[in-house]
Design brief:
5 helices; rod-shaped; mainly alpha; three-stranded antiparallel sheet
Length: about 200
């Protein structure tokens, strides 16, 4: 679809209205007579400018396929437009006013998509640049946590070993004490027997 301006809506809808009303064809002279294309007789190539403007309008109509456009097929008539099978449907569905509002909505959507793509590309660039720094930082953090877990496990094992050695030492001391006490008890128990004999 060719884009057009809001000022073109009046002329384009007039052309479609005339085709619906029963005019078989519309040419540049019809628009000049109705005052839609203004010409200033004092300017050079005034009619050529009007013909070029009419051709531009015909290209818009042709892009919407709402009428059949003929471009300079006959030098006597020049460019003209006539209705086709889609003219009435286009007219009933809102004409060029609706087409213009759809075009505005499409352009807004296209601008939003463009801005989204720009923002996504900026984000992608940032992610590419920062990836290795974050990866290195995460790798260092992961290795440190593994070292810390191993170090703590080793400390717990060494504490258990120290505690076990301490307990064995105390058990040994208790055994020694029990042996000493047992010997003393034996010696005490043996002493009265010796006295009786």
């Amino acid at each position: 679809m060719i884009e057009f301006e809001q000022k073109d809506i009046l002329i384009l809808d007039y052309i479609i209205d005339q085709l619906i009303a029963g005019y078989t064809r519309i040419n540049v002279d019809d628009l000049i007579r109705q005052g839609y294309l203004k010409i200033n007789p004092e300017e050079e190539d005034v009619y050529l400018k009007a013909v070029n403007e009419f051709d531009r309008l015909l290209h818009i109509i042709q892009s919407y396929d709402c009428a059949h456009c003929h471009f300079n097929e006959n030098d006597d008539i020049g460019s003209y437009v006539e209705s086709n099978s889609k003219t009435a449907f286009f007219y009933n569905s809102g004409g060029f006013r609706k087409a213009y509002s759809d075009l505005i909505a499409y352009n807004k959507h296209k601008e939003i998509v463009k801005n989204t793509e720009i923002n996504n590309s900026r984000l992608s660039k940032w992610q590419v640049k920062s990836y290795w720094y974050v990866f290195a930082f995460a790798l260092i953090g992961g290795l440190y946590s593994i070292y810390d877990v191993i170090n703590e496990a080793t400390k717990e094992d060494s504490k258990e070993i120290i505690l076990q050695k301490g307990l064995e030492k105390e058990v040994q001391e208790l055994k020694n004490t029990v042996n000493v006490i047992a010997k003393k008890l034996d010696s005490i128990a043996n002493k009265p027997e010796q006295k009786q004999q």
